[in-house]
């Protein structure tokens, strides 16, 4: 185990200590105990930058199941490091924020921070594992921790609903991804991402390639809330705001983006990958921004905005994947799209993180997040207002904020689609820049709504639960840091990010494009002159302002989409149907009646044995190695048969008891003839005791009533019993006729006297060779007798009470 | 003889199954009794019948396989324990519920 492994699982280990700390130091907010960990980890991962910027990769392997190729291989490259820094950096800020957001007296902080650390460790594991199976395990762990955090206020019905929804959708995708991983393993024989990438040229024509691609994308799309799987993200907003800022905007929802970026070198060889990733991304971008405009809850706006921004990054990755079809790094048009994707990923984390924290502050200080009730807050919360302006303007793509830069690059990437002459994309290529532009207009509108409906306009104190005032200073630290980053990144994108973070990340996404000695040169410029991108931005601003001002007039557009067609209805319908369906299915055969279960067991017994007899061709009849038939034995056999059949027709309880006894005594005579004296003795004793017991209970036992005389009932029973009888006969015959192994009995015969000094082999086996079996047999008898004693005593005490 | 025994065992299993599928507790108990007889004979037959003297060292060899006999001896005792337990259970159930019909014992579905 290396230090790197320790760093990945450190949050999980820390999580164990959280409850102890919470119990011991109730006076101190548990967050203070948790906060140092992400800071230390951030510094630790920061030290890797000097390594990755020279395209070096750090790999540490911890053997787990080497025989199956499943090892905990931690790998730090540009892409993984970028995410690791996001996870620990934003994590530290969110924890700092949560210290002021969550009350230490009212909330159960131990569970909150345990879940949060669980998530942090899981997410680090996802982005730093080179082994797909290990990554999958961590991936599902992020889904579980997300479930726990969304349901943190589990007494609210909506929290439970949201938690379940996110769980079902993301775990469904996760399972699909596992399928994809298995298919990749079938094709390449490896779970290692590095290994699979090196074989990507060989597997592209494999028949399992497309299924694997689809499965992996399903995992990525559900996790990153791509249309139509985005519906879980708005409901996930029931989580406490720090969680929304952390999991559902900055990190976990980007796991899907990470997966797509990570596996681009494997799958981008196929045009379908480019098509699907870019297509789903652009549709999500549009639908998310379009839906965000109609929301009235601050966090809902942010949720749909996140969906839309994730779509933006996804579409950029899709277009960028086309770069692999062109040689080299220089003049490769599509690298800019991937650069934009990585850059926007960082920018989104900064501005969206700060906006979520602003929404949390507004909620915390006014008691509502409904923009219809809010307004005029800028006089009460000037600092929050400033942060909100920075965040929203960056999100809308305005200078001087980092969102402007990545938005321009986004337009550049989308315009390059027009020149793409691969995979028949020309026919719809023009749609990409157009949808991108329209979605940007909507983005502009909801960004403006978010800030101006909340902070300007008329103050409505009568609609608020609390008297608004500025947030405590501690709550403002984290959003202020993020907002400052928004501006700093705008002015120094290259010195801060390009060489240190973005180029190494690109090197990880496009390993095959790099020849030795070359590297990605990313230059992010602020001013490019009067380019189409600039005019697109100006158009967005002009139309955006116009539509923002006239919003009440065109609001009706949203009525065109009836609720009935909404995806949420579909989801709820599926959940309801499957619940009632499985209930009906289960109750249809789990009747609670023992007879039904016996019928299932016997029927299954018949079917499975008959099938295996036929399939394995196991039935054989050996008539040579049989022992002779004596007259006594034949008579006894006849007795047993007659006795057994008579029990079925016995009319009285005395008759059936005596018939059972008769069969038992005949069987003991069989033992005599078959050279088994011990069995015969035991059977005689037992049979006598049994019959006596039956007769003791005789007066208490119910009279035999006439059986249910429905023919169908009897026929079913008869059919099943004949089936069982025939099967057993066939098995007995086959077992007799097929001798595969030599009997192990010879050992006992030879050693009975030498080892155990006994002459009766059966007895020696029971009390010596297999002594423990006998001991347990006695235990069973003891339990049975205790049960019997208990049942009889129970009756007596009851009677006494009465 | 093995073939004859196979048929006898089959009939024992058949009648046992039929009895166990009925609704009366007493019949079910009788059914389990027959089932264990069938199972014991099945084990014995699988080991081969009358292949030598009884497995006592004083006898003249070769001996019959002692292992199935040891297994059956255990099984006989266990099945006795089960039967006894079952019998008392049936008796108690009848005392408490006034019926030996397992369908009626379950009572109304609403009471579940």
UniProtKB/TrEMBL annotation, chain A:
Name a Pfam family for this protein: MbhE
Q: Which residues form the MrpA C-terminal/MbhD domain?
A: 638-703
What region holds the NADH-Ubiquinone oxidoreductase (complex I) chain 5 N-terminal domain? 64-113
GO CC term (a single one) = plasma membrane
Where in or outside the cell it occurs: the entry states: Cell membrane; Membrane
Per the record, membrane topology reads: Multi-pass membrane protein
Please list which residues make up the signal peptide: none
Q: Which InterPro entries match?
A: CPA3_Na-H_Antiporter_A (IPR050616), MrpA/MnhA1/PhaAB (IPR005663), MrpA_C/MbhD (IPR025383), MrpA_C/MbhE (IPR046806), ND/Mrp_TM (IPR001750), Nuo/plastoQ_OxRdtase_6_NuoJ (IPR042106), Proton_antipo_N (IPR001516)
Please name the GO terms of the biological process aspect recorded for this protein, alphabetically.
proton transmembrane transport; sodium ion transport
Query: Which positions fall inside the MrpA C-terminal/MbhE domain?
Result: 715-793
Question: Could you tell me the superkingdom of the organism this chain comes from?
Answer: Bacteria
Q: Which residues cross the membrane?
A: 6-25, 32-49, 78-100, 112-128, 134-154, 166-191, 203-222, 243-260, 272-290, 302-327, 333-362, 383-405, 425-452, 473-492, 534-551, 597-615, 627-650, 657-674, 680-701, 713-733, 774-792
| Record's keyword terms, sorted | Antiport, Cell membrane, Hydrogen ion transport, Ion transport, Membrane, Sodium, Sodium transport, Transmembrane, Transmembrane helix, Transport
Q: What molecular function does GO assign, one term?
A: antiporter activity
Q: Does the keyword Cell membrane apply?
A: yes
Residue ranges of domain NADH:quinone oxidoreductase/Mrp antiporter transmembrane in the record = 129-428
The answer, when asked if Cell membrane is one of the entry's keywords, is yes
Q: Which family does it belong to?
A: Belongs to the CPA3 antiporters (TC 2.A.63) subunit A family.
> Which PANTHER family does the UniProt record give?
NA(+)/H(+) ANTIPORTER SUBUNIT, NA(+)_H(+) ANTIPORTER SUBUNIT A
Name used for this protein in its record: Na+/H+ antiporter subunit A
Name the species this protein comes from.
Answer: Bacillus yapensis
Upper lineage ranks?
Answer: Bacteria, Bacillati, Bacillota, Bacilli, Bacillales
From TrEMBL, chain B:
Q: What is its main location?
A: membrane
Q: Which family does it belong to?
A: Belongs to the CPA3 antiporters (TC 2.A.63) subunit C family.
* InterPro entries recorded: CPA3_antiporter_subunitC (IPR050601), NUOK/Mnh_C1-like (IPR039428)
Judging by the UniProt lineage, the source's domain of life is Bacteria
What is the recorded name of this protein? Answer: Na(+)/H(+) antiporter subunit C
Which keywords has UniProt assigned to this entry? Cell membrane, Membrane, Transmembrane, Transmembrane helix
Phylogenetic classification of the source organism: Bacteria, Bacillati, Bacillota, Bacilli, Bacillales
Subcellular location, record wording: Cell membrane
Q: How does it sit in the membrane?
A: Multi-pass membrane protein
User: Which Pfam family name is an example for this entry?
Assistant: Oxidored_q2
Q: Which residues cross the membrane?
A: 6-21, 28-49, 69-91
Q: Which GO terms describe its cellular component?
A: plasma membrane
């Amino acid at each position: 185990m290396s230090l790197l492994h320790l760093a990945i699982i450190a949050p999980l280990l820390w999580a164990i200590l959280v409850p102890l700390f919470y119990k011991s130091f109730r006076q101190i907010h548990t967050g203070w105990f948790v906060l140092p960990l992400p800071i230390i980890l951030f510094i630790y991962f920061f030290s890797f930058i000097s390594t990755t910027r020279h395209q070096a990769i750090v790999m540490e392997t911890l053997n787990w199941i080497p025989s199956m190729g499943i090892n905990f291989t931690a790998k730090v490259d540009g892409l993984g490091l970028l995410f690791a820094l996001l996870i620990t950096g934003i994590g530290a800020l969110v924890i700092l924020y949560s210290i002021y957001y969550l009350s230490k007296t009212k909330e159960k902080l131990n569970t909150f921070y345990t879940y949060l650390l669980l998530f942090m460790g899981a997410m680090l594991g996802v982005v730093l594992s080179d082994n797909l199976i290990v990554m999958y395990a961590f991936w599902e762990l992020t889904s579980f921790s997300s479930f726990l955090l969304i349901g943190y206020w589990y007494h609210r019905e909506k929290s439970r609903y949201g938690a379940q929804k996110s769980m079902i959708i993301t775990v469904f995708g996760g399972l699909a991804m596992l399928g994809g991983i298995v298919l990749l393993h079938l094709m390449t024989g490896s779970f290692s991402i590095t290994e699979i990438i090196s074989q990507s040229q060989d597997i592209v024509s494999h028949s399992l390639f497309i299924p694997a691609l689809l499965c992996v994308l399903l995992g990525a799309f559900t996790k990153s809330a791509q249309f139509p799987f985005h519906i879980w993200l708005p409901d996930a907003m029931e989580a406490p705001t720090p969680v929304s800022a952390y999991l559902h905007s900055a990190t976990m929802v980007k796991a899907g983006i990470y997966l797509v970026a990570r596996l681009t070198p494997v799958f981008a060889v196929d045009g379908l990958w480019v098509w699907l990733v870019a297509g789903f991304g652009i549709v999500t971008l549009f639908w998310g921004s379009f839906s965000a405009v109609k929301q009235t809850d601050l966090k809902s706006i942010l949720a749909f905005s996140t969906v839309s921004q994730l779509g933006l990054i996804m579409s950029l990755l899709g277009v960028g994947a086309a770069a692999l079809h062109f040689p080299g790094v220089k003049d490769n048009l599509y690298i800019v799209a991937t650069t934009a994707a990585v850059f926007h990923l960082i920018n989104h984390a900064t501005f969206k993180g700060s906006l979520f924290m602003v929404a949390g502050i507004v909620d915390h200080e006014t008691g509502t997040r409904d923009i219809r009730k809010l307004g005029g807050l800028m006089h009460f919360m000037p600092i929050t207002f400033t942060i909100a302006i920075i965040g929203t303007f960056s999100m809308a793509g305005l200078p001087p904020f980092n969102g402007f830069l990545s938005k321009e690059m986004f337009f550049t990437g989308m315009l390059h689609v027009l020149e793409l002459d691969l995979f028949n994309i020309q026919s719809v290529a023009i749609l990409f820049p157009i949808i991108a532009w329209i979605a940007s207009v909507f983005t502009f509108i909801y960004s403006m709504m978010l800030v101006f409906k909340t902070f300007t306009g008329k103050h409505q104190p009568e609609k608020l639960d609390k008297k608004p005032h500025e947030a405590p200073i501690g709550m403002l630290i984290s959003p202020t840091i993020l907002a400052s980053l928004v501006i700093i990144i705008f002015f120094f994108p290259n010195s801060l990010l390009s060489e240190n973070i973005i180029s190494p990340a690109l090197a990880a996404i496009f390993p095959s494009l790099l020849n030795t000695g070359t590297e990605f040169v990313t230059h992010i410029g602020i001013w490019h002159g009067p380019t189409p991108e600039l005019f697109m931005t100006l158009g967005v601003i002009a139309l955006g302002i116009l539509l923002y001002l006239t919003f009440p007039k065109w609001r009706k557009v949203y009525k065109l989409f009836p609720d009935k067609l909404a995806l949420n209805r579909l989801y709820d319908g599926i959940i309801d149907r499957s619940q009632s369906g499985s209930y009906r299915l289960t109750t249809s055969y789990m009747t609670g009646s023992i007879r039904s279960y016996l019928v299932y067991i016997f029927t299954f017994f018949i079917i499975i044995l008959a099938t295996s007899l036929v399939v394995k061709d196991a039935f054989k009849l050996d008539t040579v190695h049989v022992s002779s038939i004596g007259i006594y034995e034949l008579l006894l056999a006849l007795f047993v048969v007659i006795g057994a059949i008579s029990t079925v027709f016995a009319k009285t309880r005395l008759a059936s008891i005596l018939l059972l006894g008769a069969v038992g005594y005949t069987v003991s005579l069989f033992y005599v003839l078959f050279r088994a004296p011990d069995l015969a003795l035991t059977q005689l004793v037992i049979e006598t005791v049994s019959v006596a017991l039956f007769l003791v209970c005789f007066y208490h036992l119910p009279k035999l009533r006439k059986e249910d005389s429905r023919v169908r009932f009897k026929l079913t029973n008869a059919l099943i019993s004949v089936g069982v009888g025939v099967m057993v006969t066939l098995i007995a015959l086959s077992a007799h006729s097929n001798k595969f192994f030599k009997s192990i009995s010879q050992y006992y015969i030879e050693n009975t006297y030498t080892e155990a000094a006994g002459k009766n082999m059966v007895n020696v086996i029971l009390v010596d060779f297999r002594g423990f079996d006998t001991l347990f047999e006695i235990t069973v008898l003891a339990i049975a007798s205790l049960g019997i004693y208990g049942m009889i005593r129970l009756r007596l005490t009851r009677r006494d009470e009465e | 003889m093995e073939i004859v025994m196979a048929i006898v065992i089959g009939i024992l299993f058949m009648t046992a199954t039929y009895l166990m599928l009925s609704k009366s507790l007493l019949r079910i108990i009788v059914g389990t009794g027959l089932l264990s007889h069938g199972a014991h004979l099945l084990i014995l037959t699988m080991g081969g019948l009358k292949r030598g003297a009884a497995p006592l060292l004083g006898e003249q060899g070769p001996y019959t396989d002692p292992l199935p006999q040891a297994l059956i001896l255990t099984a006989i005792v266990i099945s006795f324990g089960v039967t006894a337990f079952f019998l008392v259970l049936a008796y108690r159930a009848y005392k408490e519920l006034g019926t030996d019909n397992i369908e009626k014992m379950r009572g109304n579905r609403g009471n579940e």
